[in-house]
């Protein structure tokens, strides 16, 4: 095979691998709907506009998204506190607990 053809094959395989990884991530956070390319291209992270404390409590995050055990390791979502865009939290699960980080609004 020519070097150019090898390079093209590697590039295509790498692109397909990234798409498969993104599809698998979507399947982990959706509820029962198999992921496809159309979903992949328009996918956004789950977001809740729950009214939460500062910082959000475990119980509040459970109410917004389900328990860490239910959503699984690697689940990532956003909380727009009370839907006001005044405070936004990035939350993630390790399968046993919630972790959070307050985000800073761009100016």
Could you name the key traits of this structure?
2 domains, 107 residues, alpha+beta, 42% helix, 21% strand, 4 strands, 4 helices, 4-stranded mixed β-sheet
Shape: elongated
Number of strand elements? 4
Strand content range: 15-25%
Major beta-sheet overview: 4 strands, mixed
Number of helices: 4
> What low-confidence regions span 5 or more consecutive residues with pLDDT below 50?
none
How are helices and strands ordered from N to C? HHEHHEEE
Number of domains: 2
Radius of gyration: 18 Å
- Measured as a percent range, the helix fraction is 40-55%
Tell me what you see in this structure:
The chain is elongated and about 60 Å long. The mean pLDDT is 83. With 107 residues, it is of the alpha+beta class. A hairpin with a 3-residue loop joins strand 3 (88-94) and strand 4 (98-102). It has two domains: 3-42; 47-102, no CATH class. The protein is built from four helices and four strands; from the N terminus they run H-H-E-H-H-E-E-E. The protein has helices at residues 3-29, 37-42, 58-65, 68-71, and strands at 47-48, 73-80, 88-94, 98-102. Strands 1-2-3-4 form a four-stranded mixed beta sheet.
